[in-house]
Design a protein that fits this description.
Helix 5 packs parallel to helix 7. The N terminus and C terminus are likely disordered. Strands 8-14-13-10-11 form a 5-stranded mixed beta sheet, with no helix packed on it. Strands 2, 16, 19 and 20 form a 4-stranded mixed beta sheet that branches. It has a 4-stranded antiparallel beta sheet with strand order 15-5-17-18, with no helix packed on it. It is built from 12 helices and 20 strands. By secondary structure, it is of the alpha/beta class. It is 31% helix and 25% strand.
Length: 464
């Protein structure tokens, strides 16, 4: 059974709704004329989903009025609902010859053509339906499936983009049926790419979030500087200038090693995400594990040019887990997952199309193995500096090297807050009592983020 057939079966209820609507709307004038006749009975049976009975009554009605094009069209719909698609097409064609035509008629005719595997004709018919009425999201969805069956995946992806603006669920459903333009093959004598990511110039200042603005102060202050500020280091730089959390990705790799089978996991612990950046396929699922005794309001966002659009928002209850999708606009290159209650809890994603990517380590180093020989463009992506690109030649069994150097002056972010002077509230770190007046109970090991940023600057350079 083809993907198209499976999806049509899944959407039977929706299709029945449209079929009933089509039957009622297109024959309303005739009902008044033959309210006690076969046509009235056919419409009632259609509403009840009794398509076999409706077929008999439509045929009787056509014996009474053989020139009724709307009844002829509805007979075709009823025949298609019981999978008598060849007969349905004859009925549709006769109605068309009698002058009947509208968007829904063309759409149902296209579905019957698709069921009989006349995919080229089905695509043309549904394209015609959409020309008559561009608001038919189900037609856009089915057209995308047909394009995929015809091997026109690029056109199918265009349908995903079209649907994304109008129906997120249908867009995601269609997107999941279209594989990436990447094939899994064995890689013999693959090459290796190594290198280092450096940051020169001033290290951008850490972002400060005032905990007074967030709920669960007592718990979240365990990740505070002790004065009511939650500090988030977007730029982590080693003493030698290596930049951590930069994604290095090869572009244009069409075949090679498989993607990791294991679902990516994001652990939330003490109002903190264990991964600051991730590489992720569009539409890929992520397992979110909340180990905190408080809930997190996890939202996902797409970054598309100057736009920051929220795509989902759902609570992850305390000591609980949840699977979320990273499905965003197909043209958007970046993805954000963050807590809307605790905005300092955030992970940023870079959309990748093949498994040849890594994240730079604490010293800025990276290493990508088993690369098919060839010439590739390589991108170095960090959330807050412009992406850099380079070109590398990978030779069989050999190691190539490519370094990237960012300048802190090019940081493209806005500080959430930069005022860290004084106390935002009487935190439990300077008292034996908590903020709420209870006796302070420390964990065996307190987890704090030091606000002293001196070691994060290169040489004698000062923060800007």
């Amino acid at each position: 059974m083809s993907i198209f057939y499976r999806k049509i079966k899944v959407r039977t209820v929706i299709a029945v709704f449209w079929a009933v609507w089509f039957a009622i709307s297109s024959t309303t004038p005739a009902i008044a004329e033959t309210s006690e006749g076969a046509l009235h009975k056919a419409n009632v049976l259609s509403q009840q989903g009794d398509w076999h009975g409706a077929i008999r009554e439509f045929e009787k009605a056509l014996q009474e009025k053989p020139d009724d094009s709307a009844t002829q069209a509805n007979l075709g719909v009823a025949l298609s609902r019981v999978n008598r698609h060849k007969e349905a097409l004859f009925a549709f064609q006769k109605a068309l010859e009698m002058g009947y035509d509208n968007a829904n008629f063309r759409y149902f005719r296209g579905l019957s053509l698709a069921k009989l595997n006349f995919l080229e004709d089905a695509a043309q018919e549904i394209e015609t339906a959409l020309q008559k009425d561009s608001r038919m999201v189900l037609a856009d969805y089915d057209l995308g499936l047909i394009y995929h069956q015809l091997g026109r995946d690029e056109k199918a992806r265009q349908q995903v983009s079209k649907l994304y603006k109008r129906n997120y669920k249908l867009a995601k459903q269609l997107h999941d049926q279209i594989p990436l333009d990447y094939k899994i093959t064995s890689v013999d004598q693959g090459g290796t790419l190594t290198g280092r990511v450096n940051l020169v110039g001033p290290v951008p200042k850490a972002r400060s979030f005032h905990l007074i603005h967030a709920p669960n102060i007592e718990f979240c202050s365990r990740m505070s500087d002790g004065k009511g500020h939650r500090i988030l280091h977007d730029f982590t730089v080693s003493k030698k200038g290596g930049l951590k959390d930069t994604i290095i990705a090869l572009q244009g790799v069409k075949k090679g090693k498989p993607f990791p089978r294991k679902m990516q996991t994001l652990q939330l612990k003490r109002c903190h995400a264990d991964k600051y950046v991730i590489g992720i396929k569009n539409g890929e699922d992520i397992l979110i594990e909340n180990t905190d005794p408080i809930k997190h309001e996890i939202a996902t966002y797409e970054i598309y040019g100057a736009h920051r659009n929220q795509t989902t928002n759902k609570s992850v209850l305390s000591i609980n887990s949840q699977v979320r999708s990273a499905f965003i606009n197909p043209d958007a290159p970046e993805f954000i997952l963050k807590c809307n209650l605790h905005p300092f809890l955030q992970t940023r994603g870079y959309i990748i199309n093949n498994p040849y990517f890594v994240i730079s380590d604490a010293e800025g180093n990276f290493n990508i193995k088993s690369i098919p020989p060839g010439t590739y463009e390589v991108t170095a992506w960090h959330p807050f500096v412009p992406t850099q690109k380079g070109t590398v030649i990978i030779e069989a069994g050999k190691t190539a090297r490519l370094n990237f150097s960012f300048n802190g002056k090019d940081a493209r972010r806005k500080l959430y807050h930069d005022d860290t002077e004084g106390y935002r509230f009487n935190t439990w770190f300077d008292s034996k009592e908590t903020f709420y007046g209870d006796i302070r109970k420390d964990d065996p090991v307190e987890v704090l983020q030091e606000f002293d940023n001196s070691e994060r600057y290169i040489g004698d350079l000062k923060p800007f």
